[in-house]
């Protein structure tokens, strides 16, 4: 269930909202039981309703949304930009159970923004420490499967990586490699996060896997986000 207030989550209380033109929100593990899916098919799901209600006073409108079971992607923009957003396409790729189940995979929204081709790609990749190679394989599958349904006039962005800018995010499930959990907790408690970066599976993949060479990640100035004690921001005391 969504929380009652997502103001801080969306940084709407920082005073920077006037500087923000677009907001893309990726959700994973949204309730996708069959009775919930049937209700959401008839009505807007609760998460989407909440974001629309919260963002509309700031002049944002929902440009596009795509859902694959529990994976949802919503793209908002200021209403006065709408005439300059064109060629909007969505796609989804299932990778769970050999491609038959949408609990894992990726959803995307592709569009032209003032003539520049942008792609937002929200993924939920396989879990567990030892599945790093499968995560990379699934990402490759998603990139291969998601080709534009139609060639856009005057545009060369037929595949994900052909766009001018690609935003890749979600529950990517890359873990910290080869470090004892006691050291991980010690490093977190003592703000020694740089010692964890070197063993981050995604950082390792970026230096060894050519397909990631064009991606840039913001600074990891926050503790690992998996796992927390349920209902808290306390890092896994079990």
TrEMBL record:
Q: Which Gene3D superfamilies match?
A: Endonuclease/exonuclease/phosphatase (3.60.10.10)
Classification via InterPro entries: Endo/exonu/phosph_ase_sf, IP5, IPPc
GO biological process, any: phosphatidylinositol dephosphorylation
EC no.? 3.1.3.36
Originating species: Pelodiscus sinensis (Chinese softshell turtle)
Taxonomy of origin reads: Eukaryota, Metazoa, Chordata, Craniata, Vertebrata
**Start and end residues of each Inositol polyphosphate-related phosphatase domain:** 2-238
A Pfam family cross-referenced in the UniProt record is Exo_endo_phos2
Q: Name one GO cellular component term.
A: cytoplasm
What SUPFAM superfamilies does the record tag this protein with? DNase I-like
**Record-linked SMART domains:** IPPc
Q: Which GO terms describe its molecular function?
A: phosphatidylinositol-3,4,5-trisphosphate 5-phosphatase activity; phosphatidylinositol-4,5-bisphosphate 5-phosphatase activity
- According to UniProt, the name of this protein is phosphoinositide 5-phosphatase
């Amino acid at each position: 269930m969504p929380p009652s207030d997502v103001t801080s989550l969306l940084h709407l209380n920082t005073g920077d909202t006037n500087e923000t033109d677009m907001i893309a929100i990726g959700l994973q593990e949204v309730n996708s039981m069959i009775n919930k899916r049937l209700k959401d098919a008839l009505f807007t799901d609760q998460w989407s309703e909440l974001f629309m209600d919260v963002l509309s006073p700031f002049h944002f409108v929902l440009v596009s949304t795509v859902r694959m079971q529990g994976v949802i992607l919503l793209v908002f923009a200021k209403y006065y930009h709408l005439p300059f957003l064109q060629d909007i396409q969505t796609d989804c790729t299932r990778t769970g159970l050999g491609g038959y189940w949408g609990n894992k995979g990726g959803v995307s929204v592709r569009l032209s923004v003032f003539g520049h081709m942008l792609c937002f790609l929200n993924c939920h990749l396989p879990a567990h420490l030892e599945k790093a190679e499968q995560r990379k394989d699934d990402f490759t599958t998603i990139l291969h499967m998601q080709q534009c349904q139609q060639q856009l006039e005057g545009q060369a962005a037929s595949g994900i990586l052909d766009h001018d800018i690609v935003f890749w995010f979600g529950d990517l499930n890359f873990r910290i490699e080869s470090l004892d959990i006691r050291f991980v907790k010690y490093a977190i408690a003592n703000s020694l996060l740089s010692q964890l970066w070197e063993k981050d599976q995604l950082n390792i993949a970026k230096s060894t896997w050519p397909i990631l060479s064009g991606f840039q990640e913001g600074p990891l100035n926050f503790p690992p986000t998996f796992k927390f004690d349920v209902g808290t921001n306390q890092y896994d005391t079990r």
